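Researcher: Please translate sequence to structure tokens.
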Amino acid sequence: MDVLYFPYSYLPEWVRGALAACFDQVTVLGPSGHDVPEPMRRWAAGGRISLRLPEARADDPLPKQLKAYEAWASLHEGERPDFEALRPTEIPLYDQTAVTRLLSDIRFAGETTPNCHGIVEEQALLQARLFLALAQRHDQYQEELTRDLAQVSLMHATLFDRPAGHSPIAADRHRIRTSTENDEKIGRRIRAWQRLALHLASDLLGPNHPTLLLTHDPLVLDALDASADGMAPCCTITGIPASVSPASDPPEALASALAGLFSTGIPDAAPVDMPYPARKSAAVATLTVLRPGRCPFSPQTAASPQPSRSLLFGLLQPVSEG
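Model: Translation complete:
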């Protein structure tokens, strides 16, 4: 069984810790090796995350595109790009870093129609990578902002709200919003990830390869539910702690139980609740495993529809004890 995280390339701290407590290794797809966040590099160096990145090329246009977009964004700080006004048929035929081209690439990232509007597959892949690279930076910034706000709240509570004689209130670093995106952006992110997955991880999405597709965003599974012919919960793992080190090993009983879900292949079985084995620290997450009616990915962007026995979805959600 392989574990593939999607459709995000940056994993928040609580997600990294919970995954390390459950799995020996989780595969994460990244848009570029030029801009891998430091926390992801650190966990990859420890072997708990396997980063799959596009082949490094001296002529890769993505770093230049990102730099040009940042320059444009700094001049229009506070404004909202009018992605909806852009149309691919109106893309001017000049340098790839032109702002109009960049904004259109972001707007139409992950389009799944082959050669849509004359855009060749390589250009479509570049569009998807650009969108995911910007999304990755946004996700990291969102986590850092959430952590900073939690610290400010803690300082305020300690200075002004704490009654005399009470100990300081601990900041809850795990209560991070699982999603800040609307349905349209989630769909765009999924389509962009699918195109990248076809390029980097087609072996993990094959019709006979057991793969657990994990996410921490319930909106992602909501967006895929119809194309998957529904998703039935088959197992819920409760009381998952955070592994603070990539060197710690997950319980073998947990790995065996998860692998067994692929061999049973009983779509109508009642869902099973399983407490995390031998937990020694506070719980930070719950993992719900779901069985889709079929593979929700279209043939243009992933493998052909596969039997439900070879593909499971997992939703990791934060919890707070006490």
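Researcher: Any highlights?
Model: The two ends are 34 Å apart (CA to CA).
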